[in-house]
């Protein structure tokens, strides 16, 4: 089994990392654009019904209304809402033998994704950096200094992020998945992060919060804020969350 650093999945992460110094000169392959929709103009069509009478259709307004929003009110969000969003994104829902299962699926039930919170405006919680302790459903307090400005700066200076009530930052503990699946494991890690983020977006919509997923960041800077070593664990995704403006 080759060491992690020699694996193509790992090298891919390193080669695509953003760095403040080199981002402007970063080579982007000249790949021609293509339509957003794949079309089969010649085929016959089977219309789909658009009205659902199903009980499950309660999720429809959440899906219909979800939109990436980059403006939030300055109101603090409730701690209960945050707890609900954490549970929805990664909470444990079942146990079987040595396995635990969560709200979001994970390749091989390995759960390589960790959740960090840069808390800015949450009622009763000191602004700072926290880690979601999934096992005990609590927060590990990493620092009680507000990290929201630093996180926004590390995310390519996207100023709106500093105005979020809380920013979720997801990292991957790469070995957790690649030690079992090798290079293919990199696919599973990124897919897992997508599931987790989508659960959060829906839970945020259900609690009257706006969100914006963010994948543009200077990798080393964000890792440094999280206090993680990019050889073992590296930031892969984030989402800013804040109270929605009423229409
Ligand atoms: C993988 C991924 C990365 C994204 N990164 C950013 C980002 O860095 N900054 C930002 O403002 N929006 C970011 N977005 C939000 C997209 O711009 C947004 O999803 C898209 O415009 C579609 O709009 P909608 O989410 O409202 O449907 C990201 C979305 C995804 C799925």
Name of the CATH class: Alpha Beta
How would the global form be characterised?
globular
Question: What kind of assembly state do the chains in view correspond to?
Answer: single chain
Estimate the strand proportion: 15-25%
CATH superfamily: NADH Oxidase
Order of helices and strands: HHHEEEEEHEHHEHE
The CATH architecture: 3-Layer(aba) Sandwich
Spans with pLDDT under 50 lasting ≥5 residues?
A: none
The helix content is: 25-40%
Structural category is alpha+beta
CATH topology: NADH Oxidase
Number of helical elements: 7
Number of domains: 1
Number of strands: 8
Overall mean confidence score, pLDDT: 94
- Distinct ligand kinds: flavin mononucleotide
Quick structural overview:
By secondary structure, the protein is of the alpha+beta class. The protein has helices spanning 8-15, 60-65, 79-90, 148-154, 174-181, 185-206, 219-226; strands at 92-96, 99-102, 113-119, 128-133, 138-143, 166-173, 209-214, 233-243.
For the structure shown, list the relevant keywords.
single chain; 247 residues; alpha+beta; six-stranded antiparallel beta sheet; two-stranded antiparallel sheet; 8 strands; 21% strand; binds flavin mononucleotide
């Amino acid at each position: 089994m080759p060491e992690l650093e020699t694996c193509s999945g790992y090298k891919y992460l390193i080669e695509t990392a953003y760095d403040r110094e080199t981002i402007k000169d970063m080579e982007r392959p000249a790949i021609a654009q293509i339509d957003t929709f794949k079309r089969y103009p010649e085929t016959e069509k089977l219309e789909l019904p658009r009205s659902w009478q199903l009980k499950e259709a309660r999720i429809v307004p959440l899906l219909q209304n979800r939109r990436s929003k980059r403006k939030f009110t300055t109101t603090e969000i409730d701690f209960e809402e945050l707890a609900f969003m954490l549970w929805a994104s990664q909470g444990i829902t079942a146990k079987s033998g040595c396995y635990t299962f969560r709200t979001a699926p994970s390749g091989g039930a390995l759960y390589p994704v960790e959740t960090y919170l840069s808390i800015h405006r949450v009622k009763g919680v000191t602004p700072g950096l926290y880690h979601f302790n999934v096992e005990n459903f609590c927060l590990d307090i990493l620092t009680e200094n507000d990290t929201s400005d630093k996180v926004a700066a590390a995310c390519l200076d996207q100023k709106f992020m500093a105005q979020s009530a809380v920013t979720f930052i997801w990292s991957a503990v790469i070995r957790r998945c690649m030690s079992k699946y090798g290079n293919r494991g990199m696919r599973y890690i990124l897919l897992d992060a997508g599931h987790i983020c989508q659960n959060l977006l829906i839970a945020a919509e259900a609690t009257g919060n706006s969100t914006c997923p963010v994948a543009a960041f200077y990798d080393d800077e964000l890792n440094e804020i999280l206090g993680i070593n990019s050889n073992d664990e590296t930031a892969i995704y984030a989402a800013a969350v804040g109270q929605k403006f009423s229409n």
